[in-house]
Amino acid sequence: MKPKFPIPRPTEHAAIRAAEHSSTPLPPVEALFDRLVTAQAVGDQHGSNLFGHAIARAAGSPPLR
Q1: How many folded domains does the chain comprise?
Q2: What's the domain of life for this entry (predicted)?
């Protein structure tokens, strides 16, 4: 019997499909901007990235694929 690599994991594909079709409610854009400004003021690059993308998502930008 030949081993298959990579091992297929159907649960991963199911989780990705479920995540694509679910939407998480976001806070108002004004609150996200406040948090983005705070993250940039303290030099938090990860926070700046997260809040910048959340603002784009809340504003209705199409997702990158």
Answers
A1: 1
A2: Bacteria
For residue 56, what are its two tokens? Answer: 């784009």
- 14 found inside a domain: no
Q: What is the residue-averaged pLDDT of the chain?
A: 83
In a domain, 3, yes or no: no
- 10 preceded by cis ω (within 30°)? no
CA 7 to chain centre: 26
pTM over 0.70: no
Give the domain range for residue 32: 26-65
User: Which residue bears the tokens 């990705």?
Assistant: 16
With respect to residue 56, please indicate whether it lies within any of the assigned structural domains: yes
pLDDT digit string (tens) for 34-46? 999 999 999 999 9
Distances in whole angstroms, Cα of residue 11 to Cα of each of 6, 17, 18, 32: 14, 10, 10, 33
